[in-house]
Design goal:
Length: about 170
């Protein structure tokens, strides 16, 4: 394992653990409200749920990739591929979520959620390129993105659950 990655071992173990736990809790929360989520008029909620899921999976993958014994360059390639590949489903979810109508609950929050997500991808791609060129300080950018991704996911999960409750009350 590259010497620059050794001090990050415990952080990455904690990252994987937190991301896996939050991913499991998201499944529970969504399962409880599956009837509301599958209704055609709630496409916006499904899109937000997909992006939260994707954020947790990306943080989980970042932690796992950083735990592999490899060079910074190899990790940088993997992180860059992960970031670029994750952008596609995020963009599809954002497109569907921003086109959706009918929810009528704080639409501005949905717009901010997707804009912040795109900003996170830009920073992640930049950090991945930094790791790719073997800049050890770029690991701090990747760590910050992973932590912010988890925190942002928690906020979005909270917002999603309360949106669903609001819709459930209407029906």
């Amino acid at each position: 394992m590259e010497e620059a990655l050794l001090p990050w071992h415990d952080f990455n173990v904690a990252l994987v653990t937190a991301a896996a736990a939050l991913l499991g809790l998201l499944f529970v929360a969504l399962s409880i409200h599956i009837r509301t989520l599958v209704q055609p008029r709630n496409a916006e909620l499904r899109s937000v749920a997909r992006t939260v899921f994707l954020g947790y999976v990306v943080s989980l993958a970042i932690g796992f990739l950083a735990l592999l014994p490899q060079t910074l360059r190899a990790l940088g390639v993997e992180l860059l591929l992960l970031s670029l590949a994750s952008t596609l489903p995020f963009a599809a979810a954002a497109r569907a979520g921003l086109r959706a109508t009918g929810v009528g609950y704080r639409r501005s929050v949905t717009v901010v959620q997707f804009l912040a997500g795109f900003g996170m991808f830009i920073v992640t791609i930049a950090g991945s390129i930094g790791v790719l060129v073997e800049e050890p300080n770029a690991l701090y950018v990747i760590a910050a993105v992973a932590i912010l991704g988890l925190l942002w996911g928690v906020f979005n999960t909270w917002e999603l659950i309360f949106r669903i409750q609001w819709i459930d009350r209407e029906t």
